[in-house]
């Protein structure tokens, strides 16, 4: 990259765009995210020096989060899970379905 290598100067979009305009990057090597970015530009430019919003971040807890934390704390060894097959449940999913069934009773 012939320009500044400091991340704080310009956005990733402006730097990749300048590489395309200068010919350092071929047009056919244009990243897919750039096409999406140009079609749907953000409301505010994602710059390093932009002020952060003052809204506090909400904590998000699901009902199984505490159960999952306790499960993984107590289980020292978990069997491997085949992620290619969607119909096979993980050890925690099996445990949680039994946990919910017991909790309903």
TrEMBL record:
GO CC terms in record: mitochondrion; ribosome
Limits of the Small ribosomal subunit protein mS23 conserved domain: 2-104
Alphabetically ordered keywords of this record: Mitochondrion, Ribonucleoprotein, Ribosomal protein
Localization of this protein: Mitochondrion
Predominant subcellular localization, coarse grouping: mitochondrion
GO biological process: translation
Gene Ontology terms for molecular function: structural constituent of ribosome
One Pfam family cited in the UniProt record for this chain: MRP-S23
PANTHER family xrefs: MITOCHONDRIAL RIBOSOMAL PROTEIN S23, SMALL RIBOSOMAL SUBUNIT PROTEIN MS23
Record-stated family: Belongs to the mitochondrion-specific ribosomal protein mS23 family.
UniProt protein name: Small ribosomal subunit protein mS23
Organism of provenance: Harpegnathos saltator
Lineage of origin: Eukaryota, Metazoa, Ecdysozoa, Arthropoda, Hexapoda
């Amino acid at each position: 990259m012939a320009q500044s290598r400091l991340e704080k100067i310009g956005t990733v979009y402006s730097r990749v765009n300048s590489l395309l305009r200068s010919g350092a990057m071929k047009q056919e090597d244009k990243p897919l995210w750039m096409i999406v970015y140009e079609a749907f530009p953000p409301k505010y430019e994602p710059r390093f020096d932009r002020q952060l919003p003052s809204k506090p971040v909400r904590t998000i807890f699901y009902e199984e989060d505490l159960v999952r934390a306790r499960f993984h704390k107590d289980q020292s060894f978990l069997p491997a899970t085949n992620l290619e097959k969607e119909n096979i449940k993980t050890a925690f999913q099996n445990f949680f379905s039994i946990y919910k069934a017991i909790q309903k009773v």
